[in-house]
Amino acid sequence: TQLLEQSPQFLSIQEGENLTVYCNSSSVFSSLQWYRQEPGEGPVLLVTVVTGGEVKKLKRLTFQFGDARKDSSLHITAAQPGDTGLYLCAGRDLYNFNKFYFGSGTKLNVKP
Amino acid sequence: DSGVTQTPKHLITATGQRVTLRCSPRSGDLSVYWYQQSLDQGLQFLIQYYNGEERAKGNILERFSAQQFPDLHSELNLSSLELGDSALYFCASSVEGRGGVDEQYFGPGTRLTVT
Asked: Which end of chain B has the smaller Cβ count within 10 Å, N or C?
C-alpha cells in the first residue's frame, strides 16, 4: 500500500479545460514535492511546498499544501497538450529527511 | 538533461542472476538516492547515501545492496533476480540530503527486464 494516495489515477481532458489532482495521506510530512515524468525519462521536480497552507504558483499550475501538512493538490488552469505526462507527489519523512514517499501518480492526457 | 547519468540504459537478464546498476551524480552533489518504479506501484524509495555513508533505508530487499564510492558515484547490486524485480531503477542526486528544500535531480533510469 502507498503512504500517499493520488487521485484520480487517470485523467483525459480537452485542451483549455481545468483540472485538479489530489495527493492525500494520514501521515504528516516535513515537505511535499510535485514532479512530472514523461515516458522513458526520470521525474522532474516542479515545486516543493514546506509550510502548512502554503500556495505556490508556477505559470498555469497552482500547488497547495494542506494546513496539517498531510495532503496537497495541484490545479492546472487551461490545460495544454504539453501538460501531458505522469504527475507524482512525494512526501518527505518527518523524522528522516532523507526518506521520500511517492504517490502512485496521476496520468494526464490533454487532447488538442 | 539533469546531469545525473545512469548505466546501462537497458538490461535483460535471467532469473537467479546478479546485476550492477551504476549512477553518477551531478557535479557537486554529495547525496545519492535509489528508487524502483514498477508498473503498478509508482516510485519506491530504496536507499540513500551521503558522501559515502548510508543515511536512510526504505523497502530494500536483502537481495539488493548499494554503495557510494569516494568519487561519489554509486552502484546498486541486485542478486538472485526474480521476475518481479523487473522495473525501472532510478538514481537521484542532491547537494546535501539534509532536509529543507534540498532538491533531487533524477537520472534517466535503467530498465531491468528479468526473463
From this structure: N
Q: Residue A90: CB partners within 8 Å, gap ≥ 6? A: A4, A32, A33, A34, A35, A100, A101, A102, A103, B43
Contact check, Cβ <8 Å, B104/A45: yes
Alpha-carbon distance of A108 to B18, in angstroms, equals 36
**Concatenated DSSP letters of A4-26:** SEEE-SEEEEETT--EEEEEE-S
Contacts of B103 in chain A (CB under 8 A): 45, 48
The partner residues of B44 in beta bridges, in order of sequence, read B36
- Cell 487551461 identifies what position? A78
Ranges assigned E (strand) in A4-105: 5-7, 10-14, 19-24, 29-37, 44-49, 55-58, 61-65, 72-76, 85-93, 100-102
Provide, as residue numbers in chain B, all residues whose Cβ is less than 8 Å from the Cβ of A98.
Answer: 31, 33, 48, 50, 55-56, 97-99
Inspect the interface and report whether the beta carbons of B44 and A48 lie closer than 8 Å: no
Q: How far apart are the C-alpha atoms of A52 and A29, rounded to whole Å?
A: 10
* Residues of chain B above pLDDT 70, percent: 94
Asked if the Cβ–Cβ distance from A30 to B99 is below 8 Å, we say yes
Q: Which residue has the cell 495544454?
A: A80
